[in-house]
Specification:
It contains twelve helices and 15 strands. The chain has 407 residues and is of the alpha+beta class. The strands form two sheets. An eight-stranded mixed beta sheet has the order 6-14-8-13-12-11-10-9, with helices on both faces. Strands 1-2-3-4-5-15-7 form a seven-stranded mixed beta sheet, with helices on both faces. The longest helix is centred in the last third of the chain and has 27 residues, at 268-294. 36% of the residues are buried.
Length: 407
């Protein structure tokens, strides 16, 4: 009843993937071009010549001629169909043997829980997803369990995802709205970048690497990503024109001094308000005078690189010049990404992974934008060479720890 075909076209695979509720960038055919240090194959599974499941497989060479196969956020299929599931897994094992694979790892885009931060403790697991878990285990897949540490899996099992809606910023916490205004007051302006802005973005990311002690990506990698995905790659940048903003502050100060001189002594409230405004503007002037002596006129201070696939978006990399952290450029950038996504028909923008404990600094920052926290079902291993499987897991765990800072 079922058949499979090795080497289906990118167009057929992508069309099927985009039409699925499990649509995910990591299953796009172009993702394999980004991961050029892995080999790639696409396998389609058919019922009566109709494509019913598909998998873009990354193939990692291992010592002694062995390989590891990885299907990120896949395979794309109906996990309630036990017969199809069994056929897909058995077919993948057959293919794995031709590649001398020790095992196949996959982490399907199946959500176990979804909740807002305030509801994290009471959110129930999805019963339908639990039935899929049972089906997978009965079909021979070995589940790695409810891991909570991001380093325990290739892709994060927990993520912060923003579903796009009109007037989304109205749902943000009060302090987020205040910081959005602070960014505007400091002259932060957002823009869509192009290929010639990649160098600036890479420099910002490098600063972030140094601050956080992590290894992200370099200029060539970002340029490659934007070239491969073309119009579906979104580079959002935050910039500030320091001399221009300084001149504006000085003009404001001059006007405040005029208003103070024109205000009678009995106008206590107005005098107090103007005095407070003067102190604030003077503070900005002092701050900006220091920056103008150090930096160029117009300066990019933060950025986010995102990629769209179908009607969803992954916000993959972000960076900020830490000298400008009090400019709060992220609070201009993130809302801009969400607004642009909405205008282009994107239903959600994934801000990326978080720790399952939801108590780390990254989680707290992302919570400022009222995301939906999502918990995936997690990773599965499908042994191909049963005898060497356990030994391969030891080698894999070692390599995973080595590469845990890379996506």
């Amino acid at each position: 009843m079922y058949t499979y075909k090795i080497g289906i076209s990118a167009a057929e695979h992508d069309h099927f993937t985009k039409a699925s509720p499990q649509v995910n960038l990591l299953q796009s055919s172009n993702w394999a071009k980004i991961k050029s240090n892995w080999d790639n194959e696409r396998i389609g599974f058919y019922k009566d010549d109709r494509l019913v499941a598909s998998a873009s497989i990354l193939i990692k060479p291992l010592p002694l001629g062995f390989t590891m196969l990885y299907i990120p956020r896949g395979p794309i299929m109906d996990y309630s169909n036990k017969e199809l599931l069994s056929f897909v897994l058995q077919s993948l094992k057959k293919y794995g043997k031709t590649k001398r694979a020790l095992f196949i790892k996959f982490d399907p885009a199946l959500l176990l829980r979804q909740y807002k931060m305030a509801d994290a403790g009471s959110a129930q697991e999805n019963s339908e997803t639990l039935s899929y878990l049972d089906n997978l285990q009965k079909a021979g897949a070995i589940w790695t369990g409810r891991t909570t540490d991001m380093a325990e899996s290739i892709q994060p099992r927990f993520q912060a995802n923003v579903y796009t809606t009109e007037n989304l910023s109205q749902t943000f916490p009060k302090h987020t709205k205040r910081l959005m205004k602070d960014a505007v007051n400091r002259g932060v302006v957002t823009m869509r970048g192009q290929l010639d802005h990649v160098q600036d973005f890479a420099q910002i990311v490098e600063m972030t690497e140094g601050r956080k002690g992590v290894a992200l990506r370099n200029q060539d990698y970002f340029k490659k990503m934007m070239t491969i995905y073309g119009q579906y790659a979104y580079l959002h940048l935050a910039k500030v024109n320091l001399p221009q903003r300084l001149a504006e502050y000085k003009a404001q100060l001059e006007q405040i001094d005029k208003d103070l001189c024109a205000t009678a002594e009995h106008q206590k409230k107005r005098l107090t308000k103007l005095t407070q405004q003067k102190a604030s503007v003077q503070k900005y002037i002092t701050e900006f005078e220091q920056f103008v002596d150090t930096y160029d006129e117009e300066l990019i201070i933060a950025g986010i690189l995102s990629v769209r696939f179908g009607n969803v978006m992954e916000m993959l990399y972000a960076g900020m010049n830490d000298d400008f952290k009090k400019f709060y450029p992220q609070y201009s950038l993130y809302p801009k990404v969400f607004d642009d996504a909405l205008q282009e028909g994107i239903i959600w923008a994934n801000m990326g992974g978080v720790e399952g404990s939801l108590d780390d600094g990254l989680t707290k920052f992302k919570a400022n934008f009222n995301p939906t926290f999502e918990e995936y079902i997690g990773e599965f291993n499908l042994p191909v060479n049963t005898f060497l499987y356990k030994l391969s897991q030891i080698a894999y765990d070692f390599q995973k720890k080595k590469n845990s800072s890379h996506k």
